[in-house]
Amino acid sequence: MLKIYNTLTRKVEDFKPLNPPVVNMYTCGPTVYDYQHIGHMRRYVGDDILVRTLDFNNFKVKQVMNITDVGHLTSDSDTGEDKMEKGARKFGMSVWDIAKKFEKQFFDSARALNIRKPDILMHATDYIKEQIVFIQTLEKKGFTYKIDDGVYFDASKFPDYGILTGQRSEELKKGARVEFVKGKRNVTDFALWKFSPKGEKRQMEWESPFGLGFPGWHIECSTMAIKGLDTETLDIHTGGIDHIAIHHTNEIAQSEGATGRQFVKYWVHHNFLHVDGAKMSKSIGNIFTVEEVVRRGFDPLALRYLYLQTHYRQEMNFTWDALEGAQIAYKRLIDEVSKFKNPKIGCAEFEGKFLDAINDDLNMAKALSVVWDLIKSDYPDSAKAESILKMNQVLGLDLEKAKEKKKKIKIVVPQEVQILIEERNKLRKQGSYTQADHIRNKIKKLGFNIKDTKKGVIVEKI
Ligand code: AMP
Ligand code: ZN
What we know:
Mean pLDDT: 92
Shape: globular
Bound molecules: adenosine monophosphate, zinc ion
Largest sheet: 5 strands, parallel
Radius of gyration: 26 Å
CATH architecture of the largest domain: 3-Layer(aba) Sandwich
CATH class of the largest domain: Alpha Beta
CATH superfamily of the largest domain: HUPs
Strand content: 15-25%
Strand order of the largest sheet: 5-4-3-10-11
Low-confidence stretches: none
Number of strands: 16
Distance between the termini: 41 Å
CATH topology of the largest domain: Rossmann fold
Number of helices: 16
Structural class: alpha/beta
């Protein structure tokens, strides 16, 4: 039985969808205003593992993902600029063009990481009409009010507001830290529709019964989730942990306000990726993309392997050294699997252990260790081959292509070692062999052996 942590109940629960074997799942997708980095991509690999695990358990998953191409403000308090308009200015392109550019960059990264495409992809700008109708429903039910700035959801009218964080409205108000919008009644109220600023032409704006403007960010997810999945109660909704307090809290309020039913059974949230112990930020210059990973000589699936080593609810620290380690482990795995021939009757024992690991709230580090234990076991190669091919349906590490991949993945030699090798080559050319040996020892201490061959130096990981 699959067990999964549910943010709503703060417990690991047995997974029981409403209408098995169907699983309706909604994934908050990217806001396409800038490059998607390896922090974003960790989240989507996490969702991909969830989808594959559901598949492996014979559920029939229907996954909807949105693309936010309008309405995501730079601040969570309904102030600040629309991220898309800001991005367009930064890149000197139209809003529509940056949306296209960064959606492509997102899917290129996703493909490189073997993330399966969602069944249905929905762009916020394609569903403006539906969002307006959704707001009108809320209006009829008395949840909204209009101020100079836009149409707002009155959180005090929704008694369960804050259920996802376990903080009710009253508590939220006390801890509020909001740049207040003039006329907003409660700090927890949020914009459903923002009016275009007077005297300013926005690149994206629509006529509506409320006035010229654009939708708030949260409303697109409620509208498209219910429409795309054709149900008012979803089985699973996913996102990053930063979505819990505002975005998903607001999605619940407006969806349940409109339908009168529970919006989501299981909320799944992914933790963040840090780099060298620090938050990724432009000022530190530690934002890396999948393209950068590939440019530096890594196989993108080494990054996927690295992600799998940290549980999705734990913060993960990325370092280039850790990625080198993951590439070495991944290369070894490919080398081992490439030796296996003729898959036949798998090992039930290890397949069972693997299933237990993934069904234990997606414990992928454990699942990987089961794979290695199987490789080291005494089972015949044909059985190992069969079981590993099955496990790869969840791992998504291209193990079925091990023979072709074997030649392509190289050990990535750290720059520090590369510099030492060049130095040693120079010394050897000059005949300074003692000094050259000294450098060989230094390289050894960094974990690499070097062999001098006719074709040049060969580097091996110790
Ligand atoms: P952004 O486009 O930077 O506002 O990020 C959009 C969403 O991606 C955030 O709301 C998070 O859920 C997720 N995200 C951003 N940075 C990271 C990170 N370093 N690690 C994991 N997820 C992230
Ligand atoms: Zn969303």
